[in-house]
Design a protein that fits this description.
This protein has 79 residues and is an alpha+beta fold. It has two helices and four strands; from the N terminus they run αββββα. It has one domain. It is globular, with a radius of gyration of 15 Å.
Length: 79
């Protein structure tokens, strides 16, 4: 696993993607979502630069979600 911090134009592009992934629940509450891009055997995980998003516990939860998504996709292909 490799974690890279986006800089310059790349950072601006990723910030725009994260803004597009925000979900408004009410007038005052927004939820920032992460973005996953599956590119062959590489998974790009784009997340806000909040330290809460980059803890070991959160990494384990992300891994669980990704594994679940991959297994579900494989199951759908078999059907």
């Amino acid at each position: 696993m490799q974690v890279n911090r986006a800089e310059g134009v790349e950072s601006e592009t990723l910030d725009a993607l994260l803004r597009a992934a925000e979900e408004q629940f009410s007038q005052w509450v927004y939820v920032k979502r992460s973005i996953r891009i599956f590119d062959g055997d590489t998974i790009h995980l784009i997340k806000p630069p909040r330290s809460l998003e980059w803890t070991e516990t959160h990494a384990m939860m992300d891994a669980d979600d990704i594994i679940s998504e991959v297994l579900e996709a494989r199951q759908r292909k078999k059907s």
